[in-house]
Every structure is written in structure tokens, then in C-alpha cells.
Amino acid sequence: MSRFRMYPSPSQAEQMLTHCSHARYVWNLAVEQHSHWRRWRRSPPGFAEQCRQLTEARRDNAWLGSGNADVQQQALKDFARAKNARFTSGFGEPTWRRKHVHEGFRVIGTDRVPEYHADGSPKLNTKTGRQVMGRSVVVQKLSRRWAQVRVPGCGWVRFRLSARGKGARLPEAKTVRVTFRNGQWHIAFAVIPVPAPAPGTGEVIGIDRGVTITAALSDGRKLNCPQLTVKERAQIRKHQRRAARAPKGSAAKAAEHSMVARLKAREANRRKDWCEKTSTMLARSYDLIRFEKLNIRNMTRSAKGTVEQPGKNVPQKSGLNRSILAQGWGLLRQRTEHKAPGRVEDVPAPYTSLRCSACGWIDENSRKSQAEFACSSCGFTCNADTNASINVAAGQGGIPRPRRSACAGGTTPPTKRSSVREPQPQWVGIPLS
Ligand SMILES: [Zn+2]
């Protein structure tokens, strides 16, 4: 995916917002159709049937008919794709799109280009034997920094070529997605990026992700994800307070809310930027990248509980959750995997923080504090996070938890608390080979 900031003129922006609302309307109709489905009912209409219904709806409703047919049809296409990928994408069932939140639409290219197979031979129609022509988005380069793209109903819309390097080529794609978020327009070309080449040195790096240090590397480096400054956080609180006190439905309230949204978007942008730069660095400079396996969803599960059984330390836990999510752990792992496919491994997390990376001794007393590690066996001292990352690089968590059954040979006695993560008293001081 290559994404660029778009700079439409006011009239173009207005037209594109109309496209957004049409796409959202059509998508939500599709969601509604599919939400009526029950086990005993017929399956909801697929893409082809929905397209037929769209044509009818466009004839009956002047408002919908006045919009661009391609934009509306692509919304259905997006929906069909999301529906097909609901078990693999990680997003689940396609859900409602909201105004001001999910503003965007897809543009299909108007240019026709011959299609080729992976081996370079031209793709031919099996019936007629003619060359298959595919779609391509029309893009024009204006200067070193600027280019323009054709958007239906808007003519040429300029976007900034922010990719680095002199040979930054114009992206080629069949479709583009245009989004509007936090007052900014962006264009994303659907292209699969080329993976970063492995350095070929055979070097392995371990990464321990934490809250105090975002990513501790096994070579001793400590990388931190940039956060909002104290001043910016104070500004957020100020605008939230003003928004809360402004009269309901007033322009002032909306303005304060948008200020809050802009500041929060700034934080997210900083985090994303850091993740991109760090993952590129990792993919380019190491052959094998090992992360400790974290279940972030479980780690950030709410402590609220229910009304009958309220949880304990709820504000503390929600604060911790917020700071875990502010670290971009998942994004860093995901983007590294994209850039270095097949070169990323997950190491089981238990005991990585308690095992001595010098002698392999596992003892909870070795961990003196959050930052300090001093082995109780060999006296090795190190930063606790660096020590853990060296263990991760070695692919070592430690002794796995005792299993209730030892395969076919018999059973091991169940431990008293089988679900604890860190070692139990009777396990203290068992050295690894
Ligand atoms: Zn030791």
C-alpha cells in the first residue's frame, strides 16, 4: 500500500464528501441486508444481485441516481470482499460505517492496460483468444513533488508524492481508496510493497516489548515510541473540559471535539511513523527477528467487571491498558512481518523476563526491580528488559509449564495453581542445561 496526502480544491472536496456519503449509504444498506440473515432463511444477495438492486434503486431515487455509479458499485465490491475475508482479515463481520468517522470511497481506474501472467506471457481470453485488458488508475506526474489523479466528478485532484528517493516511481494500481479523516484527505494505491532484502549476515535480533521501554533490543539498544508531550496532554484535557461545558449541539462543542480529535490523531500518527521506521530498520539490518509472543487482547482486557461483580483497581487497569495500546506493540510486529516475510518468529513469553541470559538460571529473585536484573546464581547484572530481549533472541523462554499429562507414559501430579504465569516456589532455582 502506498498512501499519499491529497490536496483537493474546496469544490472538489465537497464533491468527494458526496461520494463518501453515497458509498457509506450503499455499504450500510448491504450490511443491513446481510444482518437479516438467519440460519433458516435464504442466503442474502451476493455482489451481482446487489449490483442489480443498486441499478433499480438508482432509478427510483433521484438522490442516489445523481451520484456516481462506479463509486456506489465499488462500495458493494468492498463489502463483498470484506464479507469474504471475515474469517481471515481479523476484522470480523463487516459493520456499520458512520458519518465523520468512516469517510472514504473507492475509485476504479478508467484506463485500460493489457494484463500479463506472472511469467510475462499476455493474458488471453479463453473463449475469444483476445488480450485481456485490466483497469488502471490514471495518474500524472506534475513535478518532483506533486502528481494528480482522476477522481470521478472532480477532474484532476493533486496529491503530494512523499516517497523518498529520486527514482520514486508513480504508483500503479487498479483501484485507489480515498479517505477523509481528521480534516485530511489521503489516497491509498492498492499495491503490494516489495519486501526489504535480508542483509544475509545471519544476525538474529530479539525484541522485548514493554511499557517503560517500548522495544528493548538484544544488542542493548532501547527504542521508545514517541508519545504526546505533557503540554499536549494538558491541551487535550482542556479541550475535553471545554467541550463538556459547551451547550449541547453548539458549534463551540463541535469545535472543541475536533480539537481533541486532532491532538489524538497526532499521537496516532507519531506512533505509526515510529513503527514504520523501526520495522524497516529491523527488516533491513537483521536476518531473523524474534518477538516475544504477547496476547495483547488478553493483556488489555477491561477490569471493569459487571454491575454485580465490579472489578478491582479499574482506573489503574484502564490506565495501564491505555499505555499498552499507546506503545504500538501489535503494529510493530505486523509491519515487520510485512517487510520481512518469513523472517519473523514468535518466542513464547513465559520466563523470558526471569531467566538469566548468561547462565540460564531461572529465579524470580533475580529480578530486583522493573529495570534491574541481577542473577542470583552467577551474579550477572543487566537491564531487565535487555536481559529479556537476549533470551528472546536465543529463542528461550524457559521451562514450559508442567503439563497435566506426560504423553502416553503417565501423568505428572497437577500443580496447585496451574494457571500462574511466573514460576511457582517449588520451581525456584532449576537451572536450564
Ligand atoms: Zn546467571
UniProtKB/TrEMBL annotation:
Residues 193-302 form the Probable transposase IS891/IS1136/IS1341 domain. Residues 395-433 are annotated as: Disordered. Residues 3-38 form the Transposase putative helix-turn-helix domain. The keyword Ion transport does not apply. Coiled coil: none annotated. The keyword Metal-binding applies. Keywords: DNA recombination, DNA-binding, Metal-binding, Transposition, Zinc. Residues 329-392 form the Cas12f1-like TNB domain. InterPro entries: Cas12f1-like_TNB (IPR010095), Transposase (IPR001959), Transposase_put_HTH (IPR021027). It comes from the Bacteria. NCBIfam families: guided_TnpB. In the C-terminal section; belongs to the transposase 35 family. This is Transposase. It comes from Streptomyces akebiae.
